[in-house]
Amino acid sequence: MDGAVCRKKRKKWDVRNWTIFIVATLGLLVIIVFHYLPMIGLLLGFKDADYSSNLLGTLLFGEWVGFEHFTAFLQDVDFWNVMSNTLIVNLILLLLNFPAPIIFALILNEVRHKWFKKGIHIVTTFPHFISWAIYGGIVIALTDQTTGIMNPILNAFGLSSDVDPVYLMDSDHIWAVLIISSIIKSVGWGSIIYMAAIASIDPELYEAAELDGVTRWQKAIYITLPCIAPTITVFLLLNIGRLLSNSFEQFNSLQNAVNLSKSEVLATYIYRLSFSSRRYGYATAIGLFNSFVSLILLVASNFISKKVAGRGLF
């Protein structure tokens, strides 16, 4: 009798149920095809795949070399130079680029004029939608020694001269160009999630603070920041997990023969090894090492965060 009642209560799927099912299935297929199936290629890191003309044949029937590629790059001087570039640039980006959207969101939150606030946010978000291929070209044009706008600005501050203009795309200045251009491109877009977190804070907290005579600066420090701390923690952990990962498009678009010694990072190094030198097995081993270290950093930072702050990503 109970089974009959249960069968009666079941409803047939309508159009909405089938739509959700199809969309979810398509999303799952995309994840499987573009994220899980390519992981089979990681086997190339353990096979003699360098200079191979048939990667599929090598993947299936190639000779196993074990950890030979891993041993090779750990002893490679070029690899450690690239690794030091990657770590230093990413640490600087973590110290400067990560808090920039938070500070920007706090400043925007204090703007009382609604349309002015939206206008600033739209203008600062716009660079995010420009590809690095175009954005990098704009940066190169702005920093050009003869026609760029940056040298006259540096001239005004006594940092350059018309006789000997500063070449900002050389190895001495490329890190500054990379970091500043990255902040300008991402600060507006990155602040969106923090603006949403700030908007969800109970207004009564601010009203109670005003009755106690708390200043706007104190409200930002003692109310806003603690309330959005969980969001900050999540993004901080994700950024730490990506400490060895760089935007290939960014570095590739600003890289040249003059600044290669400072702008070569793991992303561009792996690309060059794969498509220019055809060292497929060696490049795969470096990529796998990069992912493994990133996983360790993410798990370790999450563990420390849960112990110290009482919250983590998982």
Description:
With 314 residues, the protein is mainly α. It folds into 2 domains: 1-38; 67-308, MetI-like fold (Orthogonal Bundle), CATH 1.10.3720.10. The chain is built from 17 helices and no strands. It has helices spanning 2-9, 15-36, 55-61, 68-74, 77-96, 99-109, 114-125, 132-142, 150-156, 174-199, 203-211, 216-227, 229-241, 248-254, 260-263, 266-275, 280-308. The radius of gyration is 25 Å and the shape is globular. The model has no long low-confidence stretch (mean pLDDT 87).
What are its keywords?
314 residues, mainly alpha, MetI-like fold, 17 helices
Helix/strand layout:
Elements: H1 2-9, H2 15-36, H3 55-61, H4 68-74, H5 77-96, H6 99-109, H7 114-125, H8 132-142, H9 150-156, H10 174-199, H11 203-211, H12 216-227, H13 229-241, H14 248-254, H15 260-263, H16 266-275, H17 280-308
Helix pairs in contact: 4-17, 5-10, 6-10, 7-10, 8-14, 13-17, 16-17
- Mean residue pLDDT: 87
Shape: globular
* Low-pLDDT residue intervals, each spanning 5 or more residues: none
Task: Count the DSSP helices.
Answer: 17
Strand content: under 5%
Task: Report, as a whole number of angstroms, the end-to-end distance.
Answer: 44 Å
Supply the helix-strand structural class: mainly alpha
Mind telling me the CATH class of the largest domain? Mainly Alpha
- The CATH architecture assignment of the largest domain turns out to be Orthogonal Bundle
How much helix, percentage-wise, in residues?
55-70%
Report the strand count. 0
* Run of helices and strands: HHHHHHHHHHHHHHHHH
Radius of gyration: 25 Å
How is the biggest beta sheet arranged?
A: none
Q: What name does CATH use for the topology of the largest domain?
A: MetI-like fold
Q: What is the name of the CATH superfamily of the largest domain?
A: MetI-like
The number of domains is 2
